[in-house]
Design a protein that fits this description.
single chain; alpha/beta; seven-stranded parallel sheet; 12 helices; 12 strands; elongated; binds NADPH dihydro-nicotinamide-adenine-dinucleotide phosphate
Length: 321
């Protein structure tokens, strides 16, 4: 190309992403501007690519109207509920995400969160630090032994979690909108039916309106008083108020939670509870995996402007690429 395409980055991303994009494109770092609105008015009509993470807020029709020449939105993350992909598709804009490179990392973290929640590892660490061990023994904990695991959303990450659970020697069942022919795990047609046969329910579906409050009071009641909820999907997937009530009432035993409805705000009721483990949305958050995700953002933009093909377009916009 004669002139480098103009790319807009509304909020900061990894330094490696910024450097790589500056090498190839004319990059506008909007958050560095004293008057972002004025800059957007000035360059908005020329911007052909958008590089975003959840830090940029929701990319909706308001954004798209200000960027009439936009061709591609490259999202940092496999989940893209922060982008209105339907509207982008209707305007002929491709949306890309970062599938695959984070599956094993998120599955590892999920196993850590599961064991931490069951064996109360963070609570035990606090016990040692606070000197509790000097005057007594840490209380016996619940266990993974003998538990049946329900995976809500047996996709790429759900399967990586299932592979690990096989090695742990616990039975696995799953729910998705449809049964998978090439999968031998027991299928259940509803989240409630899955919860009813599970002692641990692991949520790893995408976010967005279709899965909003998929885990509600009814599902939690079906999980039962010895049940444990692990949420590594999106905060919107779990009815947080219903979860708090279920934990307070003993409807379920405990929960391990990486994602919340109003991040980074965690409900004070959860902060008070001794039987929950709370993480700050760190599923993919290692140096190595975040670098791989960043490279995929860069590669999608380069491939698009080199040869008109995105590497990992999301389902809604796959036909466009
Ligand atoms: P995939 O698309 O590979 O898998 C998603 C699975 O969810 C599919 O098996 C699908 O099955 C199922 N599913 C989709 N919609 C529904 C629905 N409405 N009801 C029931 N099941 C549904 O995605 P990934 O495994 O790569 O990622 C899953 C999600 O994990 C991401 O979208 C993201 O939100 C979250 N995530 C969280 C991270 C964290 O830091 N905590 C890190 C990375 C991802 P079917 O089509 O049969 O319904």
């Amino acid at each position: 190309e004669m002139v480098a395409p103009e790319i807009l980055m509304p909020a900061p991303m990894l330094p490696s992403v910024i450097t790589a994009l500056q090498d190839r494109f004319f990059l506008h770092c909007l958050w560095e501007q004293a008057d972002p609105d004025a800059v957007l008015k000035l360059v908005g009509t020329r911007v052909r690519g958008l590089a975003v993470s959840t830090l940029a807020g929701r990319i909706d029709s308001d954004w798209l109207e200000r960027l009439p020449a936009l061709e591609i939105i490259a999202n940092f993350g496999v989940g893209y509920d922060n982008v209105d992909a339907e509207t982008a598709a209707s305007r002929g804009i491709v949306v890309t995400n970062t599938p695959g490179v984070l599956d094993e990392e998120v599955a590892d973290l999920t196993m850590g969160l599961l064991l931490a929640t069951l064996r109360r590892i963070p609570q035990a660490d606090r016990f040692v630090r606070e000197g509790g061990w000097l005057s007594g023994k840490f209380p016996l904990s619940p266990t993974l032994r003998g538990r049946r695991i329900g995976i809500l959303g047996l996709g790429a990450i759900g399967k990586a979690i299932a592979r690990r659970l096989e090695a742990f020697g616990v039975p696995i069942a799953y729910h998705g909108r449809s049964r998978q022919r090439d999968v031998s795990y027991e299928y259940h047609a509803t989240p409630t039916a899955l919860a009813a046969v599970s002692d641990v329910l692991i949520a790893i579906v995408p976010g967005g309106p279709a899965t909003k409050h998929l885990v509600d009071a009814e599902v939690l009641a079906a999980l039962g008083p010895d049940g444990v909820l692990i949420n590594v999907s999106r905060g919107s997937v779990v009815d947080e108020a219903a979860l708090i009530q279920a934990l307070q009432a003993g409807t379920i035993l405990s929960a391990g939670i990486d994602v919340f409805e109003d991040e980074p705000r965690v409900p004070p009721a959860l902060l008070q509870m001794p039987n929950v483990v709370l993480l700050p949305h760190i599923g993919s958050a290692s140096h190595r995996t975040r670098a791989a995700m960043g490279q995929m953002v860069v590669d999608n933009l380069i491939s698009w402007f080199d040869n008109g093909r995105a590497i990992s377009p999301v389902a809604e916009t796959a036909a466009r690429s």
